[in-house]
Design a protein that fits this description.
This protein is an alpha/beta fold and 241 residues long. The chain contains 7 helices and 10 strands. Helix 1 crosses helix 2 (41-52). The longest helix has 18 residues, at 9-26. The mean pLDDT is 98. Residues 35-39, 66-67, 131-133, 137-140 line the site of fructose -6-phosphate.
């Protein structure tokens, strides 16, 4: 596991973007596994800039996202499909049909999980970008999730609902369920790039790096992946230094 500790969020975003840019220069038709949330926004801004400058192109890139809230669709500002279009897809030359997220508004959610799992099986990620939940979740795989999970509907924990309430008008508005890529599908990525920023992530970073590999800290499974890069700011890295 490679661990890069940065001074701050800006530097973390720069390191993350540099890794993705290099991958896209080496392999312009890479499959990118992407995350939403506050953490990768700075990195996405830099990728948008690099694309505008002609440094990289998303023309042949395919993307798969980690998760989506159940009940939210593209018209909902808090949906992850909306987030991805706002922060990346609408600002780079990726083809819309090459971008994939699970649908939170599918009529049959178990069929949607099976569809997404089959899609992932056919296009393993060259890199999977991850954020980190303050409870150690990756994707929306909450503590206790079996390591062999594939895409499923998850009941979000109170901790995650509280953490994510900042993006909604009221805590009651945060969906209680989501569809998430399973842990085994995250682990299939050739390379993992996890970004974490802020003191509220320090405990989860400790569990990831130094804790026992246990389903009680889903991110700890990354200790068993052959190619993981953590890009952290000093606050997130404070307990492992
Ligand atoms: C997002 C995702 C989540 C977030 C995590 C951290 O697609 O799967 O695991 O990465 O909850 O969220 P932020 O970055 O908002 O702190």
């Amino acid at each position: 596991m490679q661990i890069i500790v940065c001074d701050d969020y800006k530097q973390m975003s720069g390191h993350g973007a540099a890794i993705v840019k290099k991958l896209l220069r080496d392999d312009p038709s890479a499959v990118l596994g992407l995350a939403t949330g506050s953490t990768p926004i700075g990195m996405y801004d830099l990728l948008v800039q690099a694309c505008a400058d002609g440094e990289i192109s998303f023309e042949k890139v395919r993307t798969v996202n980690l998760d989506e809230y159940v009940g939210l669709g593209e018209k909902d500002a808090q949906s992850y499909v909306h987030f991805m279009r706002e922060h990346l897809f609408d600002k780079v030359n990726v083809k819309r049909e090459n971008t994939h997220l699970p649908s939170g508004i599918a009529a049959d959610l178990s069929a949607e999980c099976a569809r997404y799992s089959a899609l992932l099986a056919g296009m393993p990620q060259d890199i999977q970008v991850l954020g980190l939940g303050s409870n150690g979740h990756i994707g929306f795989n909450e503590p206790g999730t079996p390591f062999d999970s594939t895409t499923y509907v998850v009941q979000l924990t109170e901790n995650t609902i509280r953490d994510n309430a900042r993006l909604f008008d009221r805590q009651e508005d945060v969906p209680r369920k989501a569809i998430t890529m399973g842990i085994s599908e995250i682990m299939r990525a050739k390379r993992i790039l996890l970004l974490a920023s802020g003191a509220n992530k320090a405990k989860a970073v400790y569990g990831l790096v130094k804790g026992e590999v246990s389903e009680s800290c889903p991110a700890s499974i990354l200790q068993r992946h052959a190619d993981v890069t953590l890009v952290l700011d000093t606050a997130a890295a404070s307990l492992i230094r």
